[in-house]
Design a protein that fits this description.
Strand content: 25-35%
Helix content: 25-40%
Structural class: alpha+beta
Number of helices: 7
Order of helices and strands: EHEHEEEEHHHEEEHEEEH
Radius of gyration: 24 Å
Low-confidence stretches: none
């Protein structure tokens, strides 16, 4: 039994040890069913250049006792029963025991990180709602801009963004009036809570001058492609959304930071359907001087 209950076996079968011989290596995984399992494991294998021959992924409804021993495989899910994913992947034959052990360990880490993302999903949504609820405290920001930002966060929470991690930060000022950004470790969610360094987004402490400037000149929200390389669902640089945190007096006192991936449907959506982006496009069109509905 491995990390977070996942059972993993990676082996190259031999006639002597297993009773059969194949010109490939088998990866067997048994884990509670959840999103991102198959694509995250396949993602890892692809990143290592390991050629995949076949993928099998049946799901089973099971009944187990308190010790985890299998009692029955069911045709339908009943109250209290589990949905378990059985994943078997056939890859090119691997002879090295060291490489096999590395694959085993890496898959175990990946599945544990997936479990953190799935476990904390609702809390990450709630943190985004919390971030939106306090934006009205921002001073020096137009009400129309605040409305667009709040609409964007609501749009994100409606299934247009896959939350991989979230973290709340405080801005501290020392005796020399120098600012620094400090993570609230108790608020680490998803990959930010992973015990494995390669899965945790590395938050480089922003320069003192930059933090001070963000306090004096609030940006409220920042959306960009981060340096963090996702190892869950898609192997790409993840998006980063930063939302400033305000005191009741309207001062910037921290930020909420979210790491994740826009869903594939976003890339095919009209810019007019995406808050913040739609207002920017409308502004460009208005300043262009072209008549509405014209072709140019």
């Amino acid at each position: 039994k491995d990390l977070k209950g996942a059972k993993i076996k990676v082996f190259t079968p031999t006639l002597k040890k297993d009773g059969f011989d194949l010109k490939l290596t088998i990866i067997n995984i048994l884990v509670d069913d959840s999103p991102f399992l198959v694509d995250s494991v396949v993602l890892y294998l692809d990143s290592k250049g390991i050629k995949i021959k076949n993928v099998l992924h049946p799901n089973y409804f099971t009944s187990r006792d308190k010790k985890g021993e299998l009692l029955e495989i069911l045709e339908e899910k009943a109250k209290g029963d589990n949905s378990e994913a059985m994943i078997q992947i056939h890859v090119e034959k691997i002879e090295s025991l060291t490489e096999i052990e590395e694959i085993h360990t890496s898959i175990a880490k990946s599945l544990e990180s997936v479990s953190l993302v799935v476990r904390d999903w609702q809390e990450m949504l709630q943190l985004a709602v919390k971030a939106a609820s306090q934006i009205n405290l921002a001073e020096k920001i137009k009400k129309s801009e605040i409305t667009e930002i709040k609409d964007f966060i609501e749009w994100v929470n409606e299934g247009h963004f896959i939350f991989l991690g979230a973290q709340e930060f405080d801005i501290k000022k020392d005796s020399q009036n120098k600012y620094s950004l400090t993570a609230k470790k108790s608020a680490a969610l998803g990959v930010f809570a992973s015990p494995y360094e390669e899965f945790v987004p590395q938050v480089k402490n922003i320069a003192v001058e930059e933090v001070a400037n963000s306090v004096k000149h609030p940006y409220v929200i920042e959306i960009l492609k981060s340096r963090y390389r996702s190892r869950i669902h898609r192997f790409i640089n993840a998006e980063r959304i930063r939302i400033q945190k305000f005191s009741p007096e309207g001062e910037v006192v921290g930020e909420f930071r979210f790491i994740g991936l826009f869903t594939s449907s976003v890339y095919y959506s009209s810019t007019r359907d995406i808050p913040i982006l739609r207002s920017k496009v409308e502004d460009v069109i208005e300043k262009s001087g072209y008549a509405k509905g014209s072709h140019n």
